[in-house]
Amino acid sequence: MARVLQYLLLFLMSLALRIRVVGYWSLIYGYCALCTIVALLKLCWNIILRPTATFQWGVRETPPACLNDTSLGTHCYVRIKESGLRFHYVAAGERGKPLMLFLHGFPEFWFSWRYQLREFKSEFRVVAVDMRGYGESDLPLSSDSYTFDSLVTDVKDIVEYLGYNRCCLVGHDWGGTIAWLFAIQYPEMVTKLIVLNSPHPSVFTDYALRHPSQLLKSSHFFFYQLPRFPELMFSINDFKALKALFTSRSTGIGRKGRLLTAEDLEAYLYALSQPGALTGALNYYRNVFSSLPLSQNHVRSPVLLLWGERDAFFEQEMAEACRLYIRNHFRLNIISGASHWLQQDQPDIVNTLIWTFLKEGEGRKSYRN
């Protein structure tokens, strides 16, 4: 009798797990279908209002002068033997100084760290990478090339190529997600972790499934699962949707922030209008649901989490919840009035808070290799 009950319990547990899995993927594909319908309606409306302009967009042939600003650093390239990919990065500061590595988010590239490259090169070897699929780095077109493991391994390979075995790691948005994962998997390689407007991946998963309001803010995660159509929607009307991400009242940099200049915006259009660039950037989303939940969660490095109060994509409650997964010093700073694009929106405040965090415990730990 006891054995029968045991088998029955195992069967019920297995059935419950399968129901959860089916429910999880049903939610994803159902929401994806809903987002597709909304996007199709927007496309039809655009065609009605601007029948000739809707499908007009152009590749920017010449980089704007700001991308060749020598005060930001030197443009360098590295080909990683294991993956075969070539990565572009901009580096400044003396070789041999502690490494500060910057990982950008979507839909950005190394240029999003321009204010930090200038600020921290006096004390660090600062390196801002074009991550896989972005900028002048190689652009694998298959979504299978953008697994969490591949993206984390890219960071490890780049750190080691630069001649270091550890670094101060700074990430924003998707770069923040990869920074969290790297610190979890390679704690010995991260002296300090600095994340901007990106929740711990486990916090995001748990919170989004329990809060419909966050699920709504994350609707782009579902829409981007579609092949080709998101690229089209970003491209129509000469990349109007891309420009709106940085400049609109709902998602862009706030009135109190440091607004993008016309040349700054053109830098983003130059990078993301190149053939395959939007697909590379969107492929980060096309692997996310199969990569969660994480098997490991805990971060053992000191962590600074900076959060823009007006983030249009992530609810602020997730920031405090990140504390649950950190087994070291944790500092959280909410920046009033700041948007999701924090390091560009409020660079002076961000830089000051980073300096304060870096100097904490300075006498106890060395950053040097």
From TrEMBL:
Keywords: Hydrolase, Membrane, Transmembrane, Transmembrane helix. InterPro entries: AB_hydrolase_1, AB_hydrolase_fold, Epox_hydrolase-like. The chain crosses the membrane at residues 28-48. The keyword Membrane applies. One of its GO terms (molecular function) is epoxide hydrolase activity. Pfam families: Abhydrolase_1 (PF00561). Belongs to the AB hydrolase superfamily. Epoxide hydrolase family. It comes from the Eukaryota. This is AB hydrolase-1 domain-containing protein. It comes from Champsocephalus esox. Residues 98-344 form the AB hydrolase-1 domain.
